[in-house]
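Students often ask why we bother encoding 3D structure as a string. The short answer is that it lets us treat folding as translation between two languages. Here is a chain of 823 residues written in the first language.
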Amino acid sequence: MRLRILLPPAFSGCAQRNAVPAKVELAGPAGQRIPPEKCQVNDFADLPDAERSALFALSKWCDGKLASFLQLNLDQTAELIRLLQGLDCFFVANSPDEPMRWISTGLEGVSEYLPALEQKPAFKKIRTIKSDQGIPEQQKIKAIKEPPDYLGPPIEVEGSTEYLRIILPGSEHPAYAKTLKMLRDSNFLRDRSHRHWWWLRDPSKVLDFLAFNREELENAPQTEFTGNFLRLTAKVKKAVLKIEAEENDDQIEIRTMIEAGNAPVEKIEQALATGRNHFKHGENTYLLTKDLRQRAAQAQSHASGRLDAPVLARSSHLVSRFESTSLEHILIETDPKFQPPPKWKKRAIALRDLSCLPPPKLSDGMEKILRPYQALGVAWMLHLFDHELGGILADEMGLGKTLQALSLISALRKRGGPVKTSLVLCPATLLENWKREAERFFPGLATYLHHGPKRANAPSFLSRFDLVITSYGTLTRDLEIFREVPFLCVIGDEAQHLRNRKSQNAKAATALHSEGRMLLTGTPVENSVSDLTSLLDFLLPGAHPPLPSGARAEERTWSEQRILKQAGPYVLRRTKREVAPELPQKIEQTIYLQLSVEQRNRYEEIRRSAELELDRLADSGASEGALRMKTLTQLLRLRQVCCDPRLIDPSFDPFASCKLRCFRELLYNCLENGHRILVFSQFVKLLKLLRQELEQASLSHCYLDGSSTDRMEQVDRFQENESIPVFLLSLKAGGVGLNLTGADVVLHFDPWWNPAVENQASDRAHRIGQLKTVTVYKFITVATVEEKVLQLQNEKRKILENVFEESEAANLSLSLSDLRELI
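And here it is in the second language, the structure alphabet:
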């Protein structure tokens, strides 16, 4: 028997929330998976010591009772990884048969998000996922007692540049322990006659001590310097650090200077090179203090991009505009008098404080459509574009990233200029959605969808349009055409398709020529900082140095933190919770999908066959009732192909379903961002296929259809167990009478043609008790019966309400010609 722990695939999102849903199970001798609740204590006897220790920790965290599903915090996850170091016990939930890889820094894709463990027991109570779960206890905050006021004598500093005498009172002095360590580290000797007196008599050591410790003594409580000491050390000065910057074209020069009165640079350089902390020039002695060295090292290492950059008396480094925004804070921290150049200052202020951004000049009518946070997103992207920078719009799903991006393109086109064509890159499943959104909100934009067998074959053709939309796969195939087009702005949607810089997608996108670039994604960093650097390679080619290869762990960590700070101003992330005052309670979005090639072929085959069969029936004199029922049957088959071809032919490849592919993307986006989702379908067979998908990914879920005998048990389990992210429901069984406020995302996998019934299903989550904004998605396949019904819905809303209710077919007032038109 072996221990298995399944972790979520998008660990970074869990780390941000400090909540890691985990599944615990035991693998039996025959490979069977056994929940720990079903094991006896004796069953654990054969486990290796490390796995028994991990189970002991888990049981402590679960109040002594092991549970299959639980939620860990980051400290507990780190402790678990420490206990199971090097063992094949961890698995990703969507790949349960392949153990996670151990690397030098720990568990790949996990350890980099975890805190360093303190050397103390980590058995803190966690939240166990079970039906009788209550509200977790609030952490108790212990009052910190202030130390009593000190009424004794102060620390006294006496001496000159030749010697020092420090009188250190008893241990009750608040700075006693710290000062005693300082004196011993600096080789002070205690006076045999006066036990509180400490002496240092070497002039060079005295100056070293003052260089490294005088400021600390000055800041220590209850410390005094004698008048004699101040008089005799009046000509001991501190060297100072000065930073200047000059911006020219694409480069910014940052100069750091250590100055010591009128002492020549060579003398300062010699002192730094030989490790001396002081030098004499004229009548004065200058100290290269510890604080000065630290600030100079910080400024020079960040400007140069090297952790081990040597401290120099004079240094000059060229940095990009991209790097300057994050550098400003560091440079001001090291030299409070630092003043960035005017262009730098104007660029950075708006990125640090978005309220400084001027309102965007939007197309007619968009001021009333865009919500304030969306208009702010457009202004932010325009600001970046105007300063030849790129950005990542990382708003949570459902907040309208597509609309903001189209508003940016429209605003840029409104300005005019020699280059007018913008490009949108997205997964093939979202092509039609982009096209529809552009046509709906910006009909004035000349839009072209470059996809399929009849796509353009000349750069000059693409340049006719304001907006070209294509898929990542099509871009790689037609790169020779696209790289010849000078684009105004290139926007990459679902930017995870560019996270691997070695992939064809990333290489092709980076090779494009444009005046500006933007990315849209809900998860800019999914596995590691290398995800982000790949996105930056596309946005700002050459603007940041790559992560050092073969670097030691300390240097790599420093470089990763530096990149994260640099990228911070160029990532705009808003959650529904942040912008809730600007949002309606329910957001509805239709996602238009193109059938896959296999789906389209099968759809057309069934459609042609249906037409021929109906024609034969009509020619044979069949009754209207028979024709009506036959037509409805054929419509049902077409709808099933739109959802998943396996509903009519189990031998079909699962990947042939465009809806299933889009469902996977939506599902893992929900998991990444901590959402829980209700999935409705009219087809029970389809729900079972989705259940297989979730089981193969080891994702816990609830299930309800008309044959379920545990209806309320499933509802209670979903409502009370926050670790279950998905509830699959048939529309008839789960569309009414249930309270499912544990979910905040609703997906209608196949459309329900009676809007009232569809809204009733959505309102299982959107009802009293729901504290979050609910997002409702509807999958619609393009150029199919699904789209045709939507087009007819406004004209014939009432008669379409029951068009696909076969049990009520006899009562339909829809004519046969209308039904045939749908086919």
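Translate back mentally: Confidence is low (pLDDT under 50) at residues 118-147, 796-813. Keep this in mind for the problem set.
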